[in-house]
Amino acid sequence: MDHLGLDGFVTMGQDWGGPVGMAVAVERADRVRGVVLGNTWFWPTDVLTTKIFSRVMSSPPMQYAILKRNFFVEQLIPAGTARRLSPAVLEHYRAVQPNAEARKGVAEMPKQILAARPLLERLSREVPAKLGSKPALFVWGMKDFAFRPGPSLPHMRAAFPDHVLVELPSAKHFIQEDAPDEIAAAILDRFS
Question: What is the DSSP code string of 104-127?
Fold first, then answer.
């Protein structure tokens, strides 16, 4: 962002893109024009199923499945989409992570749901303080198994009073696969 000299930008985060994007944005809040968040979080988790997911996915058998069997691409992405993905789309995901070395980051992500608590505690304070006055858009897959609207959206609303919520009624976790046109239209409507 700094190298490109981005200014007046709108940041979007989904899943880990929420905490990562918010960590970058709070450091450059004066350059942020708006925030788009979809099926994500930026606070320490208090949801039991998320804590269990973190522990289970961090276990040696699941780490093996992620690294050696490409579990995220072969199982979680199809389970996290409402529509059946084409072979070409799945092949794209496979090509990005062709081997265990390329999957190390994906294997680390579930561990960090709990391990990144210090970062998430900081973001839970800094996001509302530094970005809370920015216009926000929430695009939410209402059938997400990971970030259910009930526990997640109150945090979002509290952090960003000036927000618009666009519910994606049939979308699951991977909203970019289930509702790309709706998301793009919502972003244009909110920030064009």
Answer: HHHHHHHHHHHHTHHHHHHHHHHI
